[in-house]
Write a structure and sequence with these properties.
Ribosomal Protein S5, domain 2, eight-stranded mixed beta sheet, binds (R)-mevalonate
Length: 324
Amino acid sequence: MTERIEVSAPGKLMLFGEHAVVYGKPCIVTAVDHRMKVSIEATNGDSLELHAPDVNIVGYIEKIDDLGKGEAPKGTRFVSIAVRNFFNSFGIKSGLKVETRSDFSSEFGFGSSSAVTVGVIKALGKVFGKELGNKKLFDMSYHTVLDVQGVGSGFDVAAAIWGGTLYFITGGKKIETIKPKDMPLVVGYTGVKAETTTLVRQVAEFYKNNKKVVDRIFDSIEGIVEESRHALEIGDSQKVGELMNLNQELLGSLAVGSKELTNLIEAARENGAFGAKLSGAGGGDCMIAFAPDIYREKVEVGIEKAGGKVIRVKTNAEGVRIEG
Ligand code: MEV
């Protein structure tokens, strides 16, 4: 029996570039201080025993040999495929006890699936004495996310690993840390859970039917990402806000907005935010606003009055780390 290893990985918020990043464009993502905690110990058995109470999985048991073969419950998939991929990659087989706990609800769209995947693989590396550099950890985690959900750019996996604020290109072709001067972000949750894969497939369909136009939308989003990187780095918050508004219009033209998101975004703008947009796949989940400190409270009250729930986050959070 080995010791129990605990690791934690941060959640994320997409700042600019969602959807276009699935098509080879860059995006900007920041890690947030709401963390996913994963603890793992090896056992003498031949099964994975999983406790993930946040997603209603308690005392789930599956044979290591069967991982990924049957129709496993939704809340177990990222863990069991991460374990399978790690074991296959290193030719290891062992019983395991895995427990996950999250500081944040999986409903927010903060990237709980990628954070849990990264956490499991990082912890397994430690338990079985396999040194995984960040790039290897990224490749194995991203592969796992694709195995489970079939689509995704991997930006959320990168945020969980590197933390901070990243300029990211699809599949990890570029992962660069950027240093925003100031990040006066207000986050509002719509109360509506969005299914990322459904929205990504919806955009894929839209793209298929309107290729020329959508290519131009993606090009414009790319321009916004490049400009916002610069504006963030020099601390031009007014410009960042303007670019958020522009990005939001383009996301609207991809038809990934929602009534709830629009209400919260408008409330934030009306109450002094420099700009606001949806964050992530759209259709629900969270919106973000860039609001000067003097207006923060007003913006927060505005969002709540419009039916949203303000979620306080610290941005630029540390990436995955061993807790003990
Ligand atoms: C979802 O949070 C962001 C998308 O760009 C999908 C992805 O990049 O994996 C819509």
